Amino acid sequence: MQLGSKETENERFAHYLTKTYRKTASLIANSVKSVTMLAGADEQLSDISYQYGRNLGLAFQLVDDLLDFVSSSAAMGKPTAADLKLGLATAPVLFACEKYPELNPMIMRRFQEPGDVERAFDLVHKSRGLEQTQYLAKQHCQEAVRLANLLVESPYQKGLIVAADYVLNRMK
Question: What one GO molecular function would you report for this record (predicted)?
Answer without folding.
Answer: metal ion binding
